[in-house]
Amino acid sequence: MAIATVSRPPLFSRPKSHTGVWSWITTVDHKRIGILYGFTAFAFFLVGGFEALLIRAQLARPDGHILNANVYDQVFTMHGLTMIFLVVMPLSAAFFNYLIPLMIGARDVAFPRLNAFSYWVFLFGGLFLYSSFLLGGAPNGGWFGYAPLSLQKVTGSVPFAHNMDYYAIGLIILGIASTVSAVNLAVTIINMRAPGMSFFRMPVFIWMAFVVQLLLVFALPVITVALFLLLFDRILGTSFFVASNGGDPILWQHLFWLFGHPEVYILVLPAMGIVSEILPTFSRKPLFGYPVVVLSGIAIGFMGWGVWAHHMFAAGLGPVANSAFAVSTMFIAVPTGVKIFNWLATMWGGRLRFEPPMLFSIGFVTMFVIGGLSGVTHALVPHDYQQTDTYYVVAHFHYVLFGGAVFGLFGGMYYWWPKIFGRKLNNKLGKWHFWLMLIGFNVTFGPFHILGLQGMPRRIYTYAPNMGWDFWNMVSTIGSFTIAASILLFMYNAVHSRKHGEIAGNDPWDARTIEWTTTSPPPEHNFDEIPVIHALDDFWHKKYVEDKTGKLVPVAAGGANGDGQNSNAEHGANAEEHAEGHGGGHAIHMPSPSYMPILAGLGLPIIGYGLIYGYYICILGGLILLGGLYGWAFEPGTE
Amino acid sequence: MERRSLRRLVRLTLLVAFVFLATACAAHAPQDYLRDLQGSEARKASNLFQPVFWIAAIVFFLVEGAIVFAAVKFRDRPGREEPKQIHGNSALELTWTAIPALILAVVAVPTVLTIFNVAAKPGPNQVKIHVIAHQWWWEYQYEGTTPQVTTANEVVIPVNRPVYFTLDSVDVIHSFWVPKLAGKQDVVPGRTNTLEFTAYTPGEYYGQCTEYCSLSHANMRLRAIVKTQADYDAWLKAQQAPPVAPQTAEEQQGQQIFMNNICITCHTIAGTQAQGQLGPNLTHFASRGTFAGSMFDNSPDNVDRWIHETSLLKPGVIMPRFGCGQTNAAPYVALKCISDDQISLIVTYLESLK
Asked: What is the pLDDT of residue A568?
């Protein structure tokens, strides 16, 4: 308390607002940051989805004239970059941020201000990337940015001065956001688990989150190195990827995919974690083979590093390398298959309630099976020479990343929405959303398999009428607008639920993990008392025991009727009253808000613009960054 | 209830069957690589793929069937008891780890064998062709021919004889692909990749660039023309001959206009002062069925339109638009246009280059 009495310049006092815009800008609360991540990612989802609709509109018919080649190239590149770096990754980060502390019984993440910094850097990185549309043209070299195309400043007769500078710098900035956040969350999981929560009592979602953070920590440096080399080639005239000067374009491919393949698992493991929480809850059975599901997640995390060259089978690496990566690619299907079977066994013999979270989770499993099977066929290298860079591959990864990751993430939204906002989303609308999206998804991406096998290459802005691709392209376009309609339904549901949603209570799903023991939404300090963990699915075991035959029996002492309010009975008070009774956790010190994360974060895109438009601007950006960090270091501690 | 779900299942199956049927009836797709394959490597790849496809189909129906079955059978109904709490079963889990691993191990063997089998090897009796990829067209140099035969976009090869391609790029990465004949091979600046296959049936086969190469990636198409050995020999002989000298007055005028304009800085016509290297060799232009990256059929009307509108038809091309009333962007702002009459004379000349 001594610090608080020292007088200091006003610059260094910490912000105090707990409501209004400033409270969001200065927040360091992991829950608010999670919500910010979620809303921002969803906004980018709409933008990326709009780009997808443009692509589908252009390709609906042969010789399409809705976009020209130049705009089409920018749109498909930005669609990929957006969906990967600005939607699925940050949407997963939204769940991580909101849920990790709640599910491990912590009050916040290990470094709350750093957490806010991650978010703001992510936001500014995304805006930086999109500002390119207004400043001469967006990246147009594909999300994979293959050199030497990504080095060309004039393509044919058309100048593309800075398009790919935005790509390189934008991804570096976004990489900083993800790296910082990954370190933060990994430390949180390692160090801040509630007493009794050993590693093998952690929910599977936390396990998958943990694997993802480690993948991020190791994968992002690889792409960052590659992006810096690309940037050096572009703005300093080096020749890392210029063959005529002794560089090698294949080096870029190795670096990119050494990041790029673990990235695939970075995108899908969070959804696997979500599904592993939802299926047991709505089957009223424990996850079948918890250790195996966890270990196969870890195995995927390791094996994911040994398959990158399957993106390069046609690049000419030679039969020995291609054979090695064919075999490793086949065998990474094994742990993935194990998960599928374990989820199926979880459902088997359960009492399945088909509420929206469950529907989306089953949707995830069924669609992921399709993506997994088509994935195995990529390992048939001689046939991959045929299908690589065709729509068959586009079908495959949309089944994995949309049918997989996005379905899982929507399941997570329906599942944790009541915890986050206190009200449930409407069930009926949710079911409509699910079925419409499932049908739209399959109508859109199912035909891609056929188009690919009929030889339609990726990334073409047009095709001739005599190629036999007309029909399925039209079908796919119709499907894509069906997906769009389902998303509108979801948005209506979200807005509608603000006022009319059913009040959730602490535990609306009769769930298993400890985030459901606290109020919905949780108080700033999460738990009035840090829970002590006695078992995997600790909350479930407080509500139910098993009889001799393994059947479920409610715990006698209240709290067993699925009404979450009573489950806190053992703490002697209704949770809300409890919180207020203790003065809303007044005795609990939470970190104060801070201006510094957003300030420091603001410096990075300005440095980025400086690299493109004049190094003197970098000085300004550098000063802002340093000022933010200086303020960060010297602002007073929590008041 | 049970019956209704069953009916739903039947309906779903019918739908899937319909989709497969519709696929079978789909319009003829010239780049389809599942059926009607006429090249050695395409068939080897397909032979590997077909059995695995059926294995995958069986796995698909078993797994998805089990999921749908579980969803129907174990759904919550009034009066349904709380389920037995099963935490796992090591024997089961071991089984469903081992079975997929075994299947994949079995699949891995022919895969690796085929990988080595399809790897290109130089050998006797091969036709050797040097492929040079440009943004956005293909150049072919026939090795061991004097004078060297150089052509563009349409690669002519003999039937039943192995063809050995060496692939180079002058700018960015491209990928050379004729699906009915062989899988694709990337064309990477700074390293020479190779591809070998034998075509089994004379005919015209479609292909195109499959590594994204910016603006006109979609327009970087190609044809493989497979001829009988006799036809191939005749073709080769004709290609080695100097171009036919212009006969009519119009052709001669057209030649003069061609030679007096900047056409010659990019194009070669053997035996003339046109010796440019940037664009396709036009020595025997009229012998080709298509031009401009096989975008257009080679007809006087199409060539006329091409010289007028070039980059409007094919985004990004280096060749400027010569038609009067067209505005070119940098670096061609100051370029003198060619009148409609003169362009049509050029076309007459080009179409005489058999």
From this structure: 42
Q: Evaluate whether B266 touches B279 at the Cβ level (below 8 Å).
A: yes
B52 lies in some domain = yes
Question: Cα–Cα distance between B342 and B262 in angstroms, integer?
Answer: 14
- ipTM for the complex shown: 0.93
Task: Answer yes or no: do B300 and B177 share one domain.
Answer: no
pLDDT above 60: residue A134? yes
Q: Residues 6 or more apart from A43 whose CB is under 8 A from it?
A: none
Cα distances (Å, whole numbers) of residue A375 to A334, A392, A516, B102 = 12, 10, 37, 17
B264 in a structural domain = yes
Residues spanned by the domain of B200: 1-78+120-241
Residue B84 to residue A546: CA distance in whole angstroms? 8
State the nearest Cα–Cα gap between A326 and chain B, in angstroms: 8
Distance in angstroms (rounded) separating the CA atoms of residues A551 and A18: 47
Q: Kindly state whether B309 is in contact with chain A, defined as any CB-CB distance less than 8 angstroms.
A: no
Same domain, B148 and B279: no
CATH architecture of A31-512: Up-down Bundle (1.20)
> Which among A334, A386, A387, A399 is the top mutation candidate for probing chain B, defined by the most B β-carbons within 10 Å of its own β-carbon?
A386
Tell me what the mean pLDDT of segment A349-354 comes to. 95
Q: How many domains does one find in chain B?
A: 2
Q: What is residue A536's predicted lDDT score, i.e. its pLDDT?
A: 94
Q: Which of the four pLDDT bands, split at 50, 70 and 90, describes residue A587?
A: confident
Is A457 in contact with B210 (Cβ distance < 8 A)? yes
Q: How far is B146 from chain A (nearest CA, A)?
A: 29
Taking the C-alpha atoms of residue B314 and residue B331, their distance in angstroms, rounded to an integer, is 17
CA separation for the pair A250, B293 (Å, rounded) = 26
Residues in B 241-300 with any Cβ partner in A closer than 8 A: none
CA–CA gap between residue B60 and residue A399 (Å, rounded): 14
pLDDT band for position A636 (cuts 50, 70, 90): confident
User: Is the Cβ pair A462, B219 closer than 8 Å?
Assistant: yes
Write the DSSP string, A385-421: HHHTTBHHHHHHHHHHIIIIIIHHHHHHHHHHHHHHH
pTM listed for this prediction:
0.93
How do the domains of chain A map onto residue ranges?
Answer: 31-512, 514-581, 600-639
Last residue of a domain, one of B206, B241, B276: B241
In chain A, how many H helices and how many E strands?
23, 4
Q: What is the pLDDT of residue B336?
A: 81
Q: Dump pLDDT digits (tens) for B19-57.
A: 665 655 556 899 999 989 999 999 999 999 999 999 999
B67 vs A326, A344, A550: nearest CB: A344
Task: For an interface test with B, give the residue of A140, A157, A201, A471 to mutate (most B CBs within 10 A).
Answer: A157
Handedness of CA B287, B292, B295, B297 (dihedral sign): negative
Which residues of B fall within a CB distance of 8 Å from A326? 108, 111-112, 115
d(CA A576, CA A439): 42
Are B60 and B145 in the same domain?
Answer: yes
Q: CATH number, domain at B176?
A: 2.60.40.420
Alpha-carbon distance A268 to A272, whole Å?
A: 6
The one-letter amino acid code at A307 reads: V
Q: What is the pLDDT of residues A104-119, one digit of tens each?
A: 999 999 999 999 999 9
Measure in Å the smallest separation between the Cα of A427 and chain B Cα atoms. Answer: 16
Does a structural domain hold residue B106? no
| Nearest CB neighbour to A323, from listed B92, B115, B315 | B115
Mean residue pLDDT of chain B comes to 92
State residue A638's pLDDT score.
Answer: 65
Q: Does the pLDDT at position B91 exceed 90?
A: yes
pLDDT tens digits along B222-250: 999 999 999 999 999 999 999 888 999 99
Separation of CA B53 from chain center: 23
